[in-house]
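Anyone able to model this chain together with iron/sulfur cluster?
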Amino acid sequence: MTGTLVEVDDLKVHFPIRRGVVLDRTIGYVYAVDGVDLAIRRGETYGLVGESGCGKSTLGRAMLKLTPPTAGRVVFDGIDLSTMRGERLRTMRRRMQMVFQDPMSSLDPRQSVESLLVEGMRAHGLDTGREATTKRLRSLLSSVGLPSTSLRRYPHEFSGGQRQRIGIARALTVEPELIVADEPVSALDVSVQAQVINLLEDLQREFGLTYLVIAHDLAVVRHICDRVGVMYLGGLVEETTSDQLYAEPLHPYTRALLSAVPVPDPVLEDRRERVLLTGDLPSPANPPSGCRFHTRCPWRQQQRCDTERPVLREIAPGHRAACHFAEDIRAGRIHPHEVRAELVEQGGEGMRVDDPLAGPASITEALGP
Ligand SMILES: Nc1ncnc2c1ncn2[C@@H]1O[C@H](COP(=O)(O)OP(=O)(O)O)[C@@H](O)[C@H]1O
Ligand code: SF4
Ligand SMILES: [Mg+2]
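re: yes, here you go
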């Protein structure tokens, strides 16, 4: 039962940017996913985090072959999905299901809950008779904490949290092994989020599921995930166990992300390192050269950072990071830039998050419009 369930090898998804109605020329690409390697073990919960637009959903969809990859491989339970088409792919899909952020837009409002749930079972030949199916649906509803009377009702009659439970039940009808949950609680009230997270954990135990949980909220990931991959502009920049990631983030981007999360302990809160990210997230259509994070990295060095793309490599056992200087940063041999302190002295207003650490990008920018 143990071992790798899904393996992703140098996966790329590039979306063409087209212009011109008649010529339909491709004028560039959005490098949504650009060379991702990862492996998800059977029975684990793997979290994928990163800012909006960094390619999390595209990676999740490409893993299920819902979006065709531009290059690279996805191997599910030893089978290379890129070789699968038509009926074989369809049969394979039963084993991997997706749960979406907004259950309202993924559930057809005109269909009753029963009809929504039966749909997938029917498509995969699991609807073996009315009595058996109804029995199964009732038991599934009870697993996700909904009364069996829900079968005759419609999505709009439920609250957001209940609809997400229906979405989860629908994914479970076809007995999947892997569930890709794309921001499963982001659309829910905070009070309901914990309930749905706990439900996902209970279901994992009950059905032996493997999860890929996509989230931009680090708190969600910390609670539920065994291991976490941090994405930045189409690539993984760090990966390790959830505990290790919070205890000792090694990549400057992760350090910055975590330093933005408040700590409840006031003493720790005062002492903790704060790393401010400068500038906006660059466009995935025009990613920076070298290390993609170099335009915002407070540890950026003169050499290599803007010319050579760092590979994701093991820095400590089970802990990978994509930074040329991860060891030096970890050992405290190099430090974040001191620009912050200088600005405080000069302006007296303190540092704004959008103050560029590396100075203006060009003469035009320095002179203003
Ligand atoms: N079907 C598509 N066609 C063109 N660009 C897309 C498509 N889907 C996503 N993108 C672009 O790819 C990038 C990554 O998007 P996405 O995977 O949705 O990021 P995330 O889920 O991390 O917010 C974004 O710049 C987005 O605009
Ligand atoms: S390679 Fe350079 S720019 Fe990239 S994260 Fe490391 S120090 Fe920062
Ligand atoms: Mg997304």
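The radius of gyration is 23 Å.
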